[in-house]
Design goal:
This protein is α+β, with helices and mostly antiparallel strands and 208 residues long. It has helices at residues 2-9, 82-101, 130-141, 147-152, and strands spanning 14-20, 29-35, 42-47, 53-60, 63-70, 105-111, 144-146, 161-162, 172-173, 176-181. The strands form 3 sheets. Strands 3-4-5-6-10-7 form a 6-stranded mixed β-sheet. A two-stranded antiparallel ribbon has the order 1-2. A two-stranded antiparallel ribbon has the order 8-9.
Length: 208
């Protein structure tokens, strides 16, 4: 984290808040960048010791906003991962409930390693409904709305990841999400997936 912060300060006017993942535990690790001019607005920085999430709150003129960066356990539908992935996702939802109870707006963003099981979000739909169920649990139980669906509807292709291989039709899916408090969903004015060609070993497109 110190090395990242030092490198970042030499190139960008942002503060880097990070948490490390654990080796051999499905990777992990989250970074949230906050512009230096907002340094005085940062409150309540909390890091998951296993690197699945990082939580901070910003004091804004419109009220406090809690930002949660989340990196979901890869393959949450797998037999060995299912229980741990569910517990980690439930922990994030508990953080959301606590922030809502304090009157805060919440944003949860990152690589969830979960996608909706529809033709608009997956190259091929899956026989497993685990990822779809876990995502929808946050919408149903934690008072959150998917920003992409809020803006573009359920029938617009959302593609944020593709296999690192050559070919006309790579396998693709949409594990990256931005969820926002349901009562603030009407403020989502735009959301898009960067259409730049993936390179430098990247297999995810940026969502803004």
């Amino acid at each position: 984290r110190r090395k990242m912060g030092s490198t970042n300060r030499n190139h960008m006017d942002y503060l880097a808040y990070a948490t490390h993942g654990l080796d051999g535990d499905g990777e992990g690790g989250v970074v949230i960048f906050v512009h230096n001019k907002w340094k005085h607005r940062i409150r309540d920085v909390t890091r998951d010791p296993t690197g699945r999430w990082l939580h901070l709150t910003l004091a804004t003129p419109q009220g406090p906003v809690t930002v949660i960066g989340f990196y979901g356990r890869p393959g949450p539908q797998g037999t060995q991962n299912k229980d741990r992935a569910a517990r980690e996702w439930n922990t994030v939802q508990t953080l959301v409930h606590k922030a809502h109870a304090k009157g805060r707006t919440v944003l949860v963003a990152g690589d969830y390693n979960m996608s909706y099981n529809t033709e608009y979000h997956r190259h091929r739909t899956s026989s497993s409904q685990v990822q779809n169920t876990m995502l929808n649990s946050a919408l149903d139980n934690a008072g959150l709305t998917d920003a992409w669906i809020q803006r573009h509807g359920h029938s617009t292709t959302y593609r944020t990841w593709e296999e690192r291989k050559e070919g006309e039709n790579p396998v693709w899916t949409s594990p990256d999400h931005i969820l926002i408090s349901k009562n603030q969903a009407g403020r989502v004015s735009a959301i898009q997936v960067d259409d730049a060609t993936l390179d430098h070993g990247m297999d995810h497109s940026m969502v803004t």
